[in-house]
Write a structure and sequence with these properties.
With 269 residues, this protein is mostly beta strands. The protein is built from three helices and eleven strands; from the N terminus they run ααββαβββββββββ. The two termini are 38 Å apart.
Length: 269
Amino acid sequence: MKICTMFRLGVVLLAGVLTMIIFSPGLAAQTTPNAASKPDSPSPSSDGWHVDVVPYLWFAGIHGTTGINGHDASIHATPGDVLDYLNLGFMGAVETRYNRFLLPMDFMWVKLTDKKAFSFDEGATNAKVEFKQTIFTPGVGYRLVGNDKFIVDSRFGIRYWHLDSSFNINGDVVNHTVNGTANWVDAVAGGKIQMAVAPKVFIGVFGDAGGGQARSDWEAGGLLGVRVAKKWTIQGGYRYISVNYRPQSTFVYDVNQSGIIIGATWSVK
């Protein structure tokens, strides 16, 4: 598997963060864990086990190009369009941390369905289009900086994509079904930076970049979070994911998905 240029860019980004930490004595001095950290800080302690469960909703639009067998089509769907056709979905993340070692995982599954009825001289005909998308991103990481005010995490992992689409036409004289699936895995590298701006408020940015079976695969986003209880934080922001998958001339999935994201973090431990 050939790792693409986007993956190397992700590694360069992490190297830049490391350089900033090494050559900033004041910042580096803050990396020592503080057992007396305030419970409302982004990271109360860097010791022991920590588990965060993050259910979320991502209201994303889709723009790009998809195609099969040399027949490409442009996709332009707003978040409202996607919601109209949303049949079922699940989105969530889990981050397990022991001291400074991280095991992040993000999972998203959505099912879109559209049904139409047509009238022809030969009789009624029904058309149904169904699309399923799974994005699973497990990884490992290390907390480079962790204190009351500032957090810097590095992350490395993979992003698994699964697409499943079907097109069915049923009628008195016509019955036809077309199905197609695609699966691929990309390596990604990136990180997260989080900063407290008030005792119970923080802002953060995150992102990664990579590739492998896809020509490019990257995401970026920003969040604003508010701690509303000892174990609960609500957050909202914006997320952008881009992938360009063209394994051969017979298949194309070059799309960008972006939109508002809202969720809550439950600090289990």
